[in-house]
Amino acid sequence: MHPRTQRILQRLEKLGSISDAPNCLSRFYGTTAHIQSRKVLIEWMESAGMTVHCDNIGNVRGILKSKAPNAKHLVVASHYDSVFDAGKYDGPLGVLLGIEIAQQVSESGQDLPFHLQVVAFADEEGGRFNTAYLGSGVLAGYFDKTWLSRKDDAGETLDSVIQKMGHHIDLVNDEAIPKEDWLGYYEVHIEQGPVLCDKDLPVCLVSGIAGQTRVDIHWKGMAGHAGTSPMDLRQDALCAAAELTLIIEALGKKHKEKLVATVGKMIVGPNSSNVIPGTVYHTLDIRSMQDHFLAEMVAYLEQQALTIAKKRGLHCEWKVMQSNPSVDCDPQLSAALEKGIKKSGVRELLSIPSGAGHDGVMISKVAPISMLFVRCTDGISHNPAEYCSPEDIEAALFASDAFLEALADSIK
Ligand SMILES: [Zn+2]
To answer: Is residue 325 a contact partner of residue 310, using CB atoms and an 8 Å limit?
Structure first.
């Protein structure tokens, strides 16, 4: 194994040990572990020879400046927040690979025809405030100020957390790289699916990212005594939420070739065994590569929710929190990445779409994007069993080095 691969593995272990939860990995935006991991990333980027700063949303950004006149930015990035009970590769792997390829450039004294900016995004999963792509949103200039009033489960606002992190909300909008200064975006990420395992390949190109809509659904019924309220006089919010949840599952199964739909979070009030649930909040996450179809299915589900509410005599609030169209990876960047993959000795070129959302969705609003997937065992992710072999990480590293070289050649 190459010492650079070893260094990535050691750093993955180190980052994987920085957690807010005692028995598992959890690193939500703005927590103690999140801030601690940021310090470590700053150190590593500095030791790789980059000029580093932490921006006003908490993105850690290291730059190797080019001497070329009118040089643009190639951003190599991924995220350093995690879901609850996460694996250690989702996000950090792409950040650490970025640091490693930058260190190689810096140590060789090479002057690239573009600025190489490695970014560790502060929030991609959106686990605390349901703000997926918060970090990349800022880099792309799409920070939405209405997010500031969003609250976490403890009632703290995003606004307050950003300030506690020592950042200035007024300056967040200045952190974006202007559209005309972008050369492109590159991210290495674990596949989070089974295709690479199935094909027995270490890495592959990503052709595009599926569109995604996130909805918050609030049901308001009537809490009541579980023993004295007759069954036909109830306004049970949980039963309404459960009915909708099964409709969502059925819809996903009916269109399984082009749609996935999930209710992943549900909070029942008052959540007591002898009280009829009076309120329920839950989420809907729905994705497809076909934007028009996705919008149609979201509208259909909203209609179903309203029908259930009417039938059961409850109130239902349907709030679309985020809606991103599908995006395609850029042909020119992908051509350079193809060369990189070939040069690194991978026996077959494969290109697949990503069902999972990535920061490239946000960045695609201002710049061409490209992505490389790395095999993860059995496609498992968002789970402590998530695993990438050292050999596959090394293949991703060499393919990324060669991608950078091919891109530089294409510009000179
Ligand atoms: Zn990720």
So the answer is: no
Q: How many other C-beta atoms are found inside a 10 Å radius of the C-beta of residue 190?
A: 28
Please, how many CA atoms are within 13 Å of residue 212, restricted to the half-sphere of its CB? Answer: 22
Q: List C-alpha distances in Å: 90 to 94, 352, 374.
A: 8, 18, 10
**Ion ligand 1, residues whose Cβ is below 5 A away:** 90-91
Distance 64 CA to ligand 1 centre (A): 24
The answer for residues whose C-beta is within 8 angstroms of residue 64's C-beta and 6 or more apart is: 49, 50, 51, 102, 105, 106, 112, 115, 116, 117
CA of 334 to the centre of ligand 1 (A): 20
Q: How far is CA 261 from the centre of its chain?
A: 17
Distance between Cα 292 and ligand 1 center (Å): 25
**pLDDT tens digits along 361-370:** 999 999 999 9
Element (H, E) at 321: strand 315-324
Q: How far is the CA of 170 from the centre of ligand 1 (A)?
A: 28
CA distance 240 to 69: 61
Q: Residue 212 contacts by C-beta under 8 Å, 6 or more apart in sequence?
A: 285, 286, 287, 322, 323, 324, 357, 361
Ligand 1 mean position to 89 CA, how many Å? 8
Three-class DSSP category at 353: strand
Angle formed by the axes of helices 3-16 and 32-47, nearest 10°: 160
| Close Cβ partners of 329 (under 8 Å, ≥ 6 residues apart) | 205, 206, 207, 208, 360, 369, 370, 371
Q: Tell me the C-alpha distance between 390 and 13, whole Å.
A: 12
pLDDT of residue 81: 97
Q: Parallel, antiparallel, or unpaired for β 203-209 and 84-86?
A: unpaired
The CA 189 to ligand 1 mean position distance, Å, reads 7
Distance 272 CA to ligand 1 centre (A): 35
The mean pLDDT value of the chain amounts to 96
Q: Which domains does the chain have, with CATH numbers?
A: 3-209+327-411 (3.40.630.10), 211-324 (3.30.70.360)
* Predicted pLDDT of residue 265: 95
Contacts (Cβ under 8 Å, ≥6 apart) of 255: 293, 297
Tokens of 85: 């009970």
Say how many C-beta atoms besides its own lie within 10 A of residue 381's C-beta.
21
Distance between CA atoms of 378 and 195, rounded to whole angstroms? 9
- Report yes or no on whether pTM surpasses 0.90: no
Contact of 318 with 396, CB cutoff 8 Å: no
